[in-house]
């Protein structure tokens, strides 16, 4: 094996090992209060990326079996809101992560890409874009 091949393989192995560790050590891990309907999203590591799932919201407190009735895809309207993945595939750090998609259960819309920016340890700017100039940003607050 050539020296260059050995270096490339070693680099790939380091990336594969460091990726999941980076996601597992992210300052974004935990529960965040969203800007709408008292929602709570839990951000967690999913492989080498970060994902988020809906764990609470006003509609879920009224009806724990609430379904994704506003989804633009009729085939997905029967899935439960509790535990629904709303953030997926975010990579980066230490203060900015990019990825997507993001899903907004209030509108039923899916943003193909997004950006998470840690404003400070307790505030997170969440930006979702359905097109390059059609974006929306919310500020989420960390929960204890």
Automatic annotation (TrEMBL):
Gene3D superfamilies referenced in this protein's UniProt entry, alphabetically: 2.40.128.520
| Domain DUF2147 as annotated: residue spans | 30-142
Query: Which UniProt keywords are given for this protein, alphabetically ordered?
Result: Signal
Judging by the UniProt lineage, the source's domain of life is Bacteria
Q: From which residue to which does the signal peptide run?
A: 1-23
Which InterPro entries does the UniProt record give? DUF2147
Q: What is this protein called?
A: Uncharacterized protein (DUF2147 family)
Species whose genome carries this gene? Brevundimonas mediterranea
